[in-house]
Structure formats: C-alpha cells, structure tokens
Amino acid sequence: MKTCRNIRQSLSVFLNRIVLLWQQAFSHVYKEWHGYETEKSPIFTLEFYDSLEYPKPKSDECHFMNFHGTLCGRKQFKDSNMCFWHFRDVSKYEKDAMREYFGTECSLKEAIENEVLNKQSLRGAYLENAAIGGNFFEKGANLSRADLREANLTGAHLSYGSLNRARLERANLEYAYLSDVDLRGCVFTDAKLFNTKFRRNDFSEAKGISKENFLGWKYSIMPQYKMLETYPDQCKDVYRALTAHFQAAGALEDASWAAYKEREMHRRWFRSRINPLWHIAEDFGDAVFKQRKPGMKIILFSFIHSLTSSVQYLRLTFFKILCGYGERVWRIMVASFLVILIYAVAYSYYGILDEIGSCLYFSVMTFLTVGDANLTLKGNYQWMVASESFIGLLLMGLFLFTIARRAVGRN
C-alpha cells in the first residue's frame, strides 16, 4: 500500500510539472503572437524575428506582428516598443498621452475614426474599456469596414456607432456595449460575445455569428451561453432577432437556443413587474406626462397589472419546467416518466391491481392510451384512468410538436 501511495504521489507531481510547463509555454507563445507587452519576452528582440525568418521592425517602429508575419509599421508609443493601438494599458487614453503621440488635440473616438478612414488596420488593437460610443443625442464611432480582427474590445463602449461590414474575427467583445450599433455585414467568426450588451440590433446580414460566440464560464467550470441580460425587456427582442437570423441560416440548434432564451427573458420581465409599486410608479409618471390628474384608479389598475404579471410568470414557469418552452425534448420525457410512476403508485395504493409490476404496466398502457383486456381492475376508478390518458395524450402531442419544431424549424 505504501509503495502504491508513493507511486501515485510521484505521478501526481510529474503530471503537475507537465501541466505547469505547458501553461508556461502556451502563455509564452500566446503573448508572442498577440503582442502582449511583458518583460523578458523574445518578441521584443531581433533574434525572435530572425528565428521565424520574418522581416525585422525598425528600431522606432511598433513590434506587433500578426499571424501572417505582417508588422504594424506605426511609430512607437512613449517608452514602449508598441504603437499607441497595440500598447496594452488604458493609461494611453489620457489626453496628454494622446496629444503627445498624435501631435494634436483629439479624442479617442476621433483618432480611431481617422485610422479607419485612412484604411489602416487595427488588427490586434488593444481597446479595452475604450469610450468611443455615443448616446441618444450623439453618434458613436463610425467603424464601418474596420479591420478589428483579434482586437481586444473587452468592456468597450461602442453604442450608437457603426460596425457596418467591419471584420471582428476572433475579436474579444466580452462585456462590450453594442446598443443601437449598425451590425449589417459585420463578420463575427470566432468573436467572443459573452455578456455583451445588445439593444435594437439587426443581425439579418451579420456573418459568422452563432451560439458559440456567446460562450462563457460560470464559476470557471460551468459553460453558459448568454449576452448581458440585465434588461430582460431589451434582451427578449435581441434574442428574437437572433432566432430569426439562425432560422434563416438553417442553424436549427442555435435557433432553438435563442428561442429558449427569448422566452426566458419574457418570463424574467414578467417577474420584474409583479411588484404593484412598479406599476404605480409607471402609471403615475404616464399620467403626469400626459397631463392627466392621477387618481385612485391608478392603484386599482396597478394591482390588476401586478396580478396579470404574476399569472403570466407562473404560466411561463410551468412551461419552462415541463418542456423548456417547447425547446427541451428531454424535459417532456422526464415529465412523462414521473406521470407514469405517480399513477402506478396511486393504482397500487388504491388496490386497483394486486402487483406493483402490473400497476406499472397498466400505467404505461393507459398513458399511451392503449388498453389491455387481460387486466382486471378492482373498484370504480375510471376517473383516474381517464385523467392519465388525457395527460398522456397531451404530453405525447407536445412531444411530437417539440420533435418536429427542432427537426424542421419554425417556418
């Protein structure tokens, strides 16, 4: 036993060392290719370019190099050997730093629009938390036809702007804000969109977008697919647009996921409206805006709306558990199994049949609306048998509907 324990410990240490070496090597290569500014990285030495037989950057040029061996060519930023766009620190957004680099007073939005206008590539650019979005009164950055492949746009504010025909392959847009952004013709192949904020976006002409773009990890171990869902009333419209886009592209599994999320957002929206105070505040504000005198009827209508929201929330919750809004076949199968089991126990409890095996068999036959003349029932329990047949008929119809919906789509 002691020998086995020593062997197991030795193997564990050996495997841990292999994993550590692999992580170090992978991190090293990743940082080389993506231009991370780190100390003692060979990407900043001329020997690195010699080893790959790629052209060497000039001493005052940006050292960033993409996967195809193309150098950036821009001048270096401050004491770094990266340019402004590839320098990986948000301190570059300060006005003094931008004035020193660009030689003029300009905002980050103006600087990036000028790069795009001059057809300069922003591939691999570091734009984390970049504030280049707009608002209801002001347009955001116009990045139409921009080359933002492999760019880091984590947390960037791009709302009310344009990404028309922009290239975002392998770009990181997690936690970015894309509300009211023009996405027509935008390429999202392998882009990261987990927890990205969308609102009133048109995906009809978007390319390369799929369910996998929205992959994230809960507690670092549980995969989940979603956008930023803080505002369910906005998200349900976006998921509906994604459903239509996936359906038109023939991506039935992705369309099923988006349709499920749309109904889930609808359920969460009703849950947020259960509190009558929410309706009172909404109706009171509406009355003041329309210059009407608020009265006691506002309170009455608010409680009615609250009751309606509660009923709708419970209805959607029931359908979520039963069949996943018509998108989860396995839930119907589980529900059917539970119905059969419950009725079998009931038949045995009331003594309709002698043996539990016969009760289970009879419950299955009744659920499938198939009779068996060989079984002799004791007592007058037709209502129980009829109720199971009715439930079985409904669940089988729902099962066939869900199968057809998943197989041929929603047309």
User: How would a crystallographer describe the biggest sheet?
Assistant: 2 strands, parallel
* Order of neighbouring strands in the sheet with most strands: 1-2
Globular, elongated, flat, extended or rod-shaped: what is the shape?
elongated
The CATH class of the domain at 111-228: Mainly Beta
Pattern of helices and strands? HHHHEEEEHHHHHHH
Rg, alpha carbons: 30 Å
Helix content: 40-55%
Q: Calculate the terminal CA-CA distance, rounded to whole Å.
A: 64 Å
CATH superfamily membership of the domain at 111-228 = E3 ubiquitin-protein ligase SopA
CATH architecture tag of the domain at 111-228: 3 Solenoid
CATH topology of the domain at 111-228: Pectate Lyase C-like
Strand content: under 5%
Q: Based on helices, strands and strand pairing, what is the structural class?
A: mainly alpha
Total strands: 4
Low-confidence stretches are 23-44
**Number of continuous helical runs:** 11
Mean pLDDT: 83
Structure explained in plain terms:
This protein has about 400 residues and is mainly α. Among the domains are: about 30-105, no CATH class; about 110-230, Pectate Lyase C-like, CATH 2.160.20; about 330-410, Helix Hairpins (Orthogonal Bundle), CATH 1.10.287.70. Helix content is about 50%, strand content about 5%. The protein contains 11 helices and 4 strands; from the N terminus they run ααααββββααααααα. Strands 1-2 form a two-stranded parallel sheet. The protein has a two-stranded antiparallel ribbon with strand order 3-4.
